[in-house]
Amino acid sequence: MVLQEIYNSSFELMAPLQFKEYVITQRISRWKIEKGLTDLQKKIENQLDPESGDGRAQNIARFSAETINKIKPGDLFKAESSQTVVQIRLDGVLKKKQEILNLRSNLFDKDMNIKQWRANELRFYDSKITLLEELKNSLQKTHTLIITNTNLLNRRTNASVEETAEAKRKKRAVRKNAQKSAKEKEKRFIAKVDEMLKLLTLWKIYPSYAERKGRNFNKS
Questions:
Q1: Residue 49 falls within a domain, yes or no?
Q2: Has residue 61 been placed in a domain?
């Protein structure tokens, strides 16, 4: 098919030997481009299809959904990892697109005119750019949804951390108040014991005075 297209567009515009060399060069060049795009497209499709068996694809599908149900511990890490995987694929698509755009630009002269016998190359490059644009749009949509859900998970995680910290703070406050109350109770007990010891001492020295103090102490 490719050979037929090249023949129809170029054979009559160049010498036979030149045409032969051109065909060989084009077949090698286009095969490399086709293979690179096929491999890239397959990787992208596998990672965007939760039924592909790729573990990352399941996470990507989950975190690129409109809503996330049943949030679990570790989801934030998985969402961030999914975001990284999609970003890597998106970067690969953009890089490949730029490579083909560079090849395409070489078809034109300084006046932006293209030689007639290279028109078939232009159509080939344009078809691949169209494919890459579709892959880019799909990845960007997925990437945007994952970013949105990652930010949501991040806020929820921070809120959970704050709630946990507040609960710990209250627990520390209760424990601190209990310790303070226990210390004050201990001080009152020690003071009472000291007073009793003083009374016992006075009882031995001044029995009548100690008796009066004892009655007063008991009344208090």
A1: yes
A2: yes
